């Protein structure tokens, strides 16, 4: 009997190589080549590609906004850009037990009153899905359930049922008879996702693929999986906390970096109308080292409390940040010493963003420096104080995008004093908000001492 020929497939990019190498020759990733049996190409596999569309001039093509169907979950609709799109493919990933299946089952139940919905489960039985629906209070749900992992049978069910919305839970459990590798392998995940995507585009069914994540938090499987789909969502949050964040990383039909905030309850996930309350501390009196920042997550302004602790260090002082970039913290400390004359070279500096949120925009620079100065002096900032602005290496305070929306959000939540870059100072006063505009970091530190 002839021995099956083997190839080595990269788990990052899906590229193949006839022999094992330490580094993938296609994408350059290290130790990602996995041995698999070489697959014989199926006949007529790309027959659908034979019918090509005629070439047209870009100006002659009619373009219109895509129609969206709300899922009934307002926070999920915000992340998706307003709702699901006909023929769209969404990939959602997250840690086990974070609430992916719960959220999708709730959305599917709401959509079932308007369109036909099919829930394909490969990890649970139909009875287990029904038990979860009972716990969520969805006793009279009209969602159709199929417990199957073979791709060809799932596609046959999709053609027979013709649903408008379909959930595949999860893509790593599916396998195709066209391939001999095991479910969850790079080849199987890539082939099943591509086949389901082609079916969604041809039939108009919106398909949501649930994906596993690796220990590093990235979606498991080949990276090409994220390029195939239209939208990529990440479910974030600590399983010990009741709050969850859904973040859009890619969206062909809406804005990226949008977030939706949910609270896990006994009746499932509920949208949080005022997420700023999660990221603000609950101490009644102002404390040293705390400064509230107005940050942007997509199109939504959020108020996040930045906490800093400056303590006497040893011969090797530490710089530790949670929720912010550590290298940027070291740079800001150098700017604070060079331009404002505030030295913490022999001090331990710890910075934390309350609530577990990750802040990547440079508009947090001013709030971080003010929190550090407050902790160093041992004096709290005034009650109702907020700040935002980027700090450059020359000590200048640069404007942040959409400053007016940030200030209006702060005023709406009852904040009364704001320190902002001069370029972000509003032309018309905002009721209830006193605004101090600064151009340089030393000016901000001097103004802070007067406050």
List keywords for this structure.
451 residues; alpha/beta; 23 strands
Q: In words, what does this structure look like?
A:
By secondary structure, the protein is α/β, with parallel strands linked by helices. The chain contains ten helices and 23 strands. It has helices spanning 74-80, 100-111, 126-135, 151-161, 186-203, 224-228, 326-340, 365-377, 403-412, 441-450, and strands spanning 6-10, 16-17, 33-37, 68-69, 84-85, 89-94, 117-121, 144-147, 165-169, 206-211, 231-236, 243-251, 259-265, 268-271, 290-297, 300-312, 319-322, 347-353, 385-387, 390-391, 397-398, 417-421, 434-438. A nine-stranded mixed β-sheet has the order 8-7-9-10-6-11-12-13-14, sandwiched between helices. It has a seven-stranded mixed β-sheet with strand order 17-18-16-15-19-22-23. The radius of gyration is 26 Å and the shape is globular. The mean pLDDT is 87.
Write the layout of secondary structure elements.
Blueprint: E1 6-10, E2 16-17, E3 33-37, E4 68-69, H1 74-80, E5 84-85, E6 89-94, H2 100-111, E7 117-121, H3 126-135, E8 144-147, H4 151-161, E9 165-169, H5 186-203, E10 206-211, H6 224-228, E11 231-236, E12 243-251, E13 259-265, E14 268-271, E15 290-297, E16 300-312, E17 319-322, H7 326-340, E18 347-353, H8 365-377, E19 385-387, E20 390-391, E21 397-398, H9 403-412, E22 417-421, E23 434-438, H10 441-450
Parallel strand pairs: 6-10, 6-11, 7-8, 7-9, 9-10, 15-19, 17-18, 19-22, 22-23
Antiparallel strand pairs: 1-2, 1-3, 4-5, 11-12, 12-13, 13-14, 15-16, 16-18, 20-21
Helix pairs in contact: 7-10
């Amino acid at each position: 009997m002839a021995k099956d020929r083997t190839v080595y497939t990269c788990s990052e990019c899906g590229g193949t190589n006839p022999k094992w190498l330490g580094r993938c020759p296609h994408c350059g990733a290290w130790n990602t080549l996995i041995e698999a049996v070489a697959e014989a190409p199926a006949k007529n596999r790309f027959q659908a590609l034979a019918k090509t569309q005629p070439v047209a001039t870009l100006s002659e093509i009619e373009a219109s906004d895509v129609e969206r169907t709300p899922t009934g979950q307002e926070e999920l609709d915000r992340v998706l850009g307003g709702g699901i799109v006909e023929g769209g493919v969404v990939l959602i990933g997250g840690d086990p037990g974070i609430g992916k299946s719960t959220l999708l089952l709730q959305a599917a139940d709401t959509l079932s009153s308007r369109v036909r919905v099919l829930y394909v489960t490969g990890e649970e039985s139909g009875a287990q899905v029904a038990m979860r629906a009972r716990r969520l209070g969805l006793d009279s749900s009209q969602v159709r359930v199929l417990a199957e992992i073979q791709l060809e049978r799932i596609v046959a069910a999709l053609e027979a049922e013709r649903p408008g919305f379909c959930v595949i839970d999860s893509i790593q459990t599916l396998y195709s008879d066209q391939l001999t590798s095991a479910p969850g392998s790079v080849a199987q995940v890539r082939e099943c996702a591509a086949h389901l995507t082609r079916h969604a585009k041809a039939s108009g069914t919106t398909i949501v693929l649930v994906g596993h994540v690796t220990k590093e938090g990235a979606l498991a499987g080949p990276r090409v999986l994220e390029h195939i789909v239209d939208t990529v969502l990440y479910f974030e949050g600590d399983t010990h906390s009741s709050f969850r964040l859904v973040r859009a990383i890619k969206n062909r039909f809406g804005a990226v970096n949008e977030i939706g905030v949910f609270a896990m309850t006994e009746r499932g996930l509920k949208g949080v109308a005022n997420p700023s309350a999660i990221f603000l501390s609950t101490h009644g009196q102002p404390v040293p080292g705390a400064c509230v920042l107005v940050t942007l997550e997509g199109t939504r302004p959020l108020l996040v409390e930045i906490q800093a602790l400056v303590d006497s260090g040893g011969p090797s002082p530490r710089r530790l940040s949670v929720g912010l970039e550590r290298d940027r913290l070291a740079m800001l400390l150098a700017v604070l010493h060079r331009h404002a004359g505030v030295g913490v070279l022999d001090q331990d500096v710890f910075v934390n963003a309350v609530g577990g949120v990750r802040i990547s925009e440079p508009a947090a620079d001013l709030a971080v420096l003010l929190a550090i100065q407050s902790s160093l002096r041992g004096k709290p900032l005034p009650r109702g104080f907020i700040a935002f602005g980027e700090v450059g290496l020359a000590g200048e305070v640069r404007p942040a995008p959409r400053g007016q929306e940030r200030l209006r959000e702060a005023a709406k939540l009852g904040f009364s004093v704001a320190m902002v870059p001069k370029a972000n100072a509003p032309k018309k006063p905002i009721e209830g908000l006193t605004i101090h505009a600064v151009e340089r970091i030393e000016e901000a530190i001097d103004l802070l001492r007067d406050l």
